[in-house]
Amino acid sequence: MTETSVSPPVNTISNTSFLEKVIAATPGESHLELCIQCGTCGGSCPSGADMDHTPRGLFALITAGMKDTVLKSNTPWFCVSCYYCTVRCPQEIHITDIMYTLKRLAVQEKVYDDSTAPDFSKTFINWVENYGRAFELGLMSMHMLKHNPFGVFKVADMGVGMITKGRMAFRPTRIKGINGLKAILNKAKELEVAA
Amino acid sequence: MTEPKIGVYVCHCGSNIAGMVDVEGVAKWAAENLKHRGVVIARDYKFMCSSTGQEIIQKDIQELGLNRVVVAACSPHLHEQTFRTACKNGGLNPYLCELVSIREQASWVHTDKGEATEKSKSIISGGVERVRWHEPLEPLRVPIHPATLVVGGGIAGIQAALELADAGYPVIMVEREPSIGGHMAQFDKTFPTLDCSACILTPKMVQVGTHPNIKLFSWAEVTSVDGYVGNFQVTIRQKARCVKTDLCTGCGICQEKCPKKVIDDVFEAGLGYRKAIYTPFPQAVPKYPVMDRENCTFFQKGTCKACEKFCPTEAIDFEQQDELFQFDVGQIILATGWDLFDPRRIPQFGYGRLANVFTSLEFERLSNAAGPTGGKIVMRDGVSVPKSVAIVHCVGSRDKNYNNYCSAICCMQSLKFAHLVHERTGAEVYNFYIDIRTPAKSYDEFYQRLLEEGTHFIRGRVAEITDAARKPDEEGKLIVQAENTLIGKQMRMPVDMVILSAGLEPRHDAKEVARLFGISCSADGWYIERHPKLDPIATMTEGVYISGVVQGPKDIPASVVQGAAAAARALGKIQQKEISMEPIRASINQDICSGCRICNNLCPFNAILFHEDLMVSEVNPALCQGCGTCVAACPAGAISGTVFSDQQVLAQLDGLLLTNLKRFEEVPA
Amino acid sequence: MKYSYFPGCSLEKNAAAYDVSTRAVCKPLGIDLVEIEDWNCCGATEYISLNLLASYSLIARNLAQANKNIGVDQVVAPCSACYLNLRKTDKYMHESPDLSKKVNTALAAGGISYQPGSVKIKHLLDVVVNDVGYDTIQAKVTRPLNGLRIAPYYGCMIVRPEFGASAGNGKPLDNTEYPMILDKLLQVLGAEVVDFPLKAHCCGGHMTQISESTGFEMIRQIVKGASDYNADLIVTLCPMCQLNLDAFQGGMNRHFKTSFQMPVLYFTQMIGLAFGMDAKALGIGDELVNARSALAKIGVEVPEPETPKQKRPTKEELPMPHMPKEG
Lengths: 195, 669, 327
Description:
The structure holds 3 protein chains of 3 kinds.
Chain A: H1 17-24, H2 40-44, H3 55-63, H4 67-72, H5 75-78, H6 84-88, H7 95-108, H8 116-131, H9 136-147, H10 151-154, H11 156-164, H12 178-194
Helix pairs in contact in A: 8-9
Chain B: E1 6-11, H1 23-33, E2 39-45, H2 51-64, E3 68-73, H3 76-90, E4 97-101, H4 113-131, E5 140-143, E6 148-151, H5 155-166, E7 171-175, E8 189-190, E9 195-196, H6 197-210, E10 214-218, E11 220-228, E12 231-238, H7 253-257, E13 261-264, E14 272-275, E15 277-278, E16 290-291, H8 297-301, H9 306-310, E17 323-329, E18 331-334, E19 338-340, E20 357-359, H10 360-367, E21 388-395, H11 410-425, E22 428-433, H12 443-452, E23 456-459, E24 464-466, E25 478-484, E26 489-495, E27 497-502, E28 504-506, H13 510-517, E29 544-546, H14 556-576, E30 578-581, E31 586-588, H15 598-602, E32 608-611, E33 616-619, H16 629-633, E34 639-641, H17 646-656
Parallel strand pairs in B: 1-2, 1-3, 3-4, 6-7, 6-18, 7-10, 18-29, 20-27, 21-22, 21-27, 22-23
Antiparallel strand pairs in B: 5-30, 8-9, 11-12, 12-17, 13-14, 15-16, 19-28, 24-25, 25-26, 31-34, 32-33
Helix pairs in contact in B: 1-4, 2-3, 4-17, 5-6, 5-14, 10-11, 11-12
Chain C: E1 2-5, H1 16-29, E2 32-35, H2 47-50, H3 53-66, E3 74-77, H4 80-95, H5 97-108, E4 120-123, H6 124-139, E5 149-153, H7 181-188, E6 192-193, H8 207-210, H9 212-228, E7 233-236, H10 239-247, H11 249-256, E8 264-266, H12 267-274, H13 292-295
Parallel strand pairs in C: 1-2, 1-3, 3-4, 5-6, 5-7, 7-8
């Protein structure tokens, strides 16, 4: 008899710990365990067509314990926080909050295929943590350099337009209490790890 | 009090109690430690509720002359009646038997055997102390008036009325609309047989209209209900039709000649028109039209009177007033039906803004041959035939934002619509669903049929219906956006027409009507049955029954069954001529009552009346359900319950706290 | 009426027109803005993607700073994202004493603290239509915007999720799918308001930077939607929406080879115009898609009323369901 290698069926129901982890890492009562897979979220999502898994699909994967697939998915990074899913969900699941949780988990475990979105957030955050305010020029230039260098040409028009209309700041603004803010943020991060 | 001779019986309930409570030990303990309180025998047995178990009690009553019995077993909700009857058959007044729960209250809520056993001892001790104060009671016997009031002329009410009337008893039916028939009269075909709804309904309607035992009031409402089971006095307001029914022949000339057209919001679901004087549909029962005074030109402007001019029998009477009628009835059956969920509450479905989005009732009228389009399934312009139709399941149902429950009939209804659309228009049909619910007889076979007919099923709850096109092939269409969950992709389906299977809701005034009849609604607004599994047509109020969708969403066969069941229950009581009621009642000691009337408004069953002349209140024992609210509330302590007297409760407390274990020299009388 | 003012990072430069027009119209509206001292970025949708507790702490610092304005217990935010973040943080801290404790421990490291519920947080539009009121506004209109067809654009975060009033009156600000408060405001200002089905759809936020085609498609749908309804301009209430629809309109046009020219202005600028103020003083001219030609229509005599004539229903036409009065 020739040996054929057949992969055994995935035991997808035994592991509820990933579902529990996601629920625990989401503020308040997210109700994720109540999902009936109706598809309203997937149907409502404005960026849903470009996600590799719809929000509903992602929840099925979470429930099945497929942690790697979930955290590698581009779904949470394509969420635009429009909250249509959250207000329309018949089970009142706090879907947008769960998307934020998944982003945090993906970054924590450094599991993502496409780093465009996580890097964008990281770059934004860097400016905020060092100056106390967002700095768009800094954000856009660092982001484009890393992820879309030739895109500079495409946005040249817009850039020129913004500069001409006086809508572009060339220097970041630093708040007076930046040291206080840094202390607060560091303390918060310390407490979060401890939790 | 005579010397109490108490028998204590501790049930094992298999391992339900014995698994956590040392039942033999408890029985022995009772025999020894409660001897001085009157316990002459204490036994334990595997299943006290079995006939053997009951016989043990009966034998002891006869041989040992027991005059009180305490059974320690499951909850009284389950077997109180069993043991009371056993005592009765053994020759002891059933109300001298007390059932204490050591299953739900001890065994099932403990994980420590020792603690469960100790608690059981306390519970039994409490029961023993209490039962010493029980008195022999006789159930109240109340005569039953043979007439029955049926409120609501839909299919459930019609069924109930016919069962009672055919059995030879008088029925008074009250229907709020001008004709009986309810929602079923609006439908085109019924699932799964695709019978023509009116064809199967109208023969029953005619039977009701011509039955010698049924007095039918349509265009009428019940305004007040007094009394109690067997003896209700109901007042019915017959709204003025402005038509003399003894002269009207139902010829319909008045309708024809009336110049005022009005949108028919009720029967035609807002899709068609009627006149200011109208019968809602040709097969209306009774045949007499009604005048809609708010839209009648004469009542609004003082001119016209065309109907009066043309009526061949001079039956029009503009002066007619509402009339009140009073009747005595024995029992009441409420079958008031439902209202449709209003999809305007879901703006993203576009109902009311997008012309070609229809509700289920609107579609029924489109499809119905007697409807505004003569049965042609067309779009809102009244002319174009759709080439593609989307049917949306679960609109306003299974949704915590609107109604949490499943409306039970919409899946089948959606399948029926799909079939009718195929058949009449040949259009492509897309059903958007979460689940396909086809539980009853021939229902799943109907789903198979729809699959064979080539219906497209998309598993995905519709997210949005819009006319904002994104691509050229979407222009001019309605776009249904959903996720096809079975393949995990978002999709936009351009269609010509959308039908929303909107859910069922209680009538907008269901709460007020329930209050009128002294029954309760659940949080959703459906009427509450006595037991959801074993008694879905009775209510907590004796003599008032519910049937049909008013008790919860259901299809036509289930409504018919409930109508018949309510009638059977009523018939059973009527034939006994009397009913006996549990003598668990409150009574007011009028010597102590100060006439403060606090109890009057607290009574959930409106069972307390106030005597103006004597300045005291009195409990009507037939309405009283023995809830104890007034007993607790009376500041003068003038009210006591027959099986919940202060003495009984305080004695039970003593027993629970085991203060009775100290020897009493004197046995309190 | 005094409010602690939280402008948000966008209003400093790229949406300076919003800030300038807000300050300009608050005077006649009787709104006294007291800028929050040394406020910091709310984190937008970025900070909370990487940090949870730190994100709440970042936001709560602003609420703590707001408390420094003695006697002022209301915070007003013109940007929908800032509004959502402030409101959400206050609500979650209020609901979870545990979270509140942790956030305050973090704030203590900066020498401040915040008691949840101590300020009411409102979006600028909420303050204008509810605290000031349509009647007051109508009375001050000297140059009604007759002749202008406007597509009101809410975006998502002002109406979703339904947070209701911070102080717990429980009612949502407006319908989450089909809001009307901006429509009503523009009508009061005399403009013709277009019933625009995509008025509460999302503009895409930062999506243009994550996946250009996705972001541009979201912008295209809204601009096309307004254009299909023959709107002269879009009026918005969030700087991110304005940036996406206005500044990225050129990029979107290039991507899809369309040629939309749909100006996008702030509702505060429209109020200012209706109050007779000078356009430049309201920051008009800052927009990349020029609004001049659209605004030239204001006050143009229109010989016939713009509302479509009620056409007599044909014999076959089926009646539409009755909709409750809107506007």
